Amino acid sequence: MSSAALTTGAAGDVLPGAALAGEGIPSRWLGRLAFAPALALQEDLRRRHASVGDVVLLLEHEPVYTTGRGGRPENLGRVAADPAIPFERIGRGGDVTYHGPGQLVGYALVDLRMRDRDVHRFLRQMETGVIWTLQALGVRATRWPGRTGVWVVDRGTGVESVAAEPTDVAHLDDHDMQLGRIRKIASLGVGVRGGVTMHGFALNVALDLAPFAAIVPCGLAGVHMTTVEREAARPVRSVRDVAMLAARHVGRALAWPYPHKAAFGEVSS
To answer: 266: Cβ–Cβ under 8 A, 6 or more apart, which residues?
Structure first.
């Protein structure tokens, strides 16, 4: 599907896909999409940002490996030589990861020039939105200080709530990660061009995790990836259902201007 086709909608509608009800930044659902047209769509919306405004695109990808600007060759494993799943080097932060059906991808096109150009604060806000989304699904999630992304931990490791930024996971280390005591459920990586963000987050909903075995995910040797399906206390919803929750929670976390508490991690109902 071409970018032009994706952006054709009702009269006066210059955004792709279907609108999702939410708060803060508007979100659009695109369904399942190959990586190349989704990247072209991001570029198109970034160029037209002055007329389109901030938006979060929510979708699933066909299977693809991607790596960011600083991705290290040794973390790619055999994927660059394996034609079974495409491989793309793209202009975001972060190392190699995998996208595929069963994973909710969120691409945020946001003008950081109106937000003091603070990329780190933007990433923390996005993490908060993903954590709120997981909370609504009954998954206890957290940040891990010093490591971008969203994590879940075993009971007994010091995290007994769904608070968005508990400080008591700071004692966990690579050994805990390699033992699976703390597991990665969502990866984040953004790029900024012309003051506008691109790329965003990938939340594992009901994803086949096997392709991660071919790489060093996010450059973290021994990391255990996990999914909502594995961690939730109740049956997992469809990716579109999770997208509807993300439209509310990620949109609210990225809203501008924002309440300080909402931006930096206190969970609200």
So the answer is: 163, 164, 165
